[in-house]
């Protein structure tokens, strides 16, 4: 337990919260706002495309690895300078989104959400590199568990927390649109938690060494080395393309159902406060337990065994929502379904982060390589999940969530194939 209290692990924990906070602001929380504003399900489903920056962030990740941010890098260091800079941009983007109105102009909402997603994706690039480079091997499992648990807490704050805030603001006499605006303004202020953490942290030693090793190179040369090194080093590995396909599909089942969870609950007849109370209460507890359970599995079992456990659990958990759709409005049933989803989702994410971390070994291009992998993982959440709203409309909720289980099949086939080829044994333990 003491390992979770190590300063480096605590820093990673708060940065995990900072990474998780903005994702829902351009995702599930925004979808609730849009649904309450009368936007149709088809348009809501298409808003999954707003997550495009998460799939393309590897394109500008070499800039994060190689370039300095004027004033910020000199004052805070290579990784911390980027952290502080991008968090200030994120605050500005969330404030801009707060000024939009889904009922009047979904286009402006999409632009604002796209800016939030871009700033958030850039923050993820830096935080992921900082985490991989700063944690020694003996703290990696604790760091991943803490990061994912805090990440999920950040998402819960920006979902259930925002819904509670909007209701509270409406209770003071504000209109619904104004209440939503102030809810997002409050979330913009909470980004400062990550900024303070970055200011109090120390620059990773591996980052210092990488910076010293390339200090004599031009900016262009550093960018080229970061970009080419990340791609060529990975693609020369055995079964690299199959591994990339597995990265794309591992979280697809979770993302496909998760895209429509909030509209589903609203359509069943639950109030905004019912959903928020359960997500923030029971869902938060399940997330914490699931996050640390995933950390235990990553330490206790081999990487491939942990991946099998996470893959099966997050797929089967969708059946809880299929069952909920037949029950009707029942607080206990909703609490159970949300708990199952949060618990299994946290386990799957911790184990998946362990796998991605094991794939990244060189501090010269940590940010680029990890961004490439997480961008590919976001393909399932963004492009493959964009049709979820239309599938739900065509099949109804029970069949939709049953289909969500079936879409896990390709990832399980790839997992079995990679295991047979010795892919996971070749990676060895998670280390930097």
From TrEMBL:
Domain Major facilitator superfamily (MFS) profile: residue ranges: 8-422
Keyword Transmembrane helix recorded: yes
Subcellular location field: Membrane
Chief location category: membrane
Coiled coil location: none
Keywords: Membrane, Transmembrane, Transmembrane helix, Transport
UniProt keyword annotation of Transport present: yes
One MF annotation (Gene Ontology) recorded for this entry: transmembrane transporter activity
Listed transmembrane segments: 42-60, 81-100, 106-127, 148-169, 181-201, 243-266, 278-298, 305-326, 332-358, 370-391, 397-418
Domain of life: Bacteria
Entry-linked Pfam families: MFS_1
Membrane topology: Multi-pass membrane protein
Cellular component annotations (GO), alphabetically ordered: membrane
Family per similarity comment: Belongs to the major facilitator superfamily.
Protein name per the record: MFS transporter
UniProt source species: Rhodopseudomonas palustris (strain ATCC BAA-98 / CGA009)
Gene name as annotated: ampG
């Amino acid at each position: 337990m003491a390992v979770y209290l190590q300063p480096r692990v605590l820093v990673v924990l708060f940065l995990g919260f900072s990474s998780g906070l903005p994702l829902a602001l351009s995702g599930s929380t925004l979808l609730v706002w849009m649904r309450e504003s009368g936007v149709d399900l088809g348009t809501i489903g298409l808003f999954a495309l707003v997550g495009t920056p998460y799939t393309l962030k590897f394109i500008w990740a070499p800039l994060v690895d190689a370039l300095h941010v004027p004033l910020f890098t000199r004052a805070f260091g290579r990784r911390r300078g980027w952290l502080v800079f991008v968090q200030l941009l994120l605050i500005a983007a969330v404030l801009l989104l707060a000024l939009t109105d889904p009922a009047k102009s979904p286009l402006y909402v999409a632009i604002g959400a796209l800016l939030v997603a871009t700033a958030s994706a850039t923050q993820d690039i830096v935080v992921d590199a900082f985490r991989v480079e700063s944690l020694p091997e003996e703290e990696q499992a604790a760091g991943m568990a803490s990061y994912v648990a805090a990440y999920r807490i950040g998402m819960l704050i920006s979902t259930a927390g925002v819904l509670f805030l909007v209701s509270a603001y409406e209770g003071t006499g504000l209109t619904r649109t104004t209440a939503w605006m102030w809810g997002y303004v409050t979330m913009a202020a909470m980004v400062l938690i990550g900024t303070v953490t970055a200011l109090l942290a120390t620059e990773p030693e591996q980052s210092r060494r990488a910076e010293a090793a390339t200090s004599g190179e031009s900016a262009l040369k550093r960018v080229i080395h970061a970009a080419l090194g990340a791609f060529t080093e990975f693609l020369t590995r055995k079964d690299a393309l199959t591994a990339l396909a597995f990265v794309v599909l591992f979280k697809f089942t979770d993302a496909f159902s998760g895209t429509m969870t909030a509209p589903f609950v609203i359509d069943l007849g639950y109030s905004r406060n019912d959903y928020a109370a359960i997500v923030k209460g029971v869902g938060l507890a399940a997330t914490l337990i699931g996050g640390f359970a995933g950390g235990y599995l990553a330490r206790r079992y081999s990487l491939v065994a942990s991946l099998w456990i996470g893959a099966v659990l997050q797929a089967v958990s969708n059946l809880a929502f299929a069952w909920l759709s037949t029950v009707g409005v029942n607080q206990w049933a909703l609490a159970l379904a949300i708990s199952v989803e949060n618990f299994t989702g946290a386990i799957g994410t911790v184990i998946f982060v362990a796998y991605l971390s094991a794939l990244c070994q060189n501090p010269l291009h940590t940010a680029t390589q990890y961004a490439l992998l997480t961008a590919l993982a976001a393909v399932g959440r963004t492009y493959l999940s964009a049709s979820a709203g239309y599938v739900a409309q065509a099949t109804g909720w029970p069949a939709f969530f049953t289909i969500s289980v079936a879409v896990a099949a390709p990832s399980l086939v790839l997992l079995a194939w990679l295991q047979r080829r010795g892919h996971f044994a070749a990676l060895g333990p998670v280390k930097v």
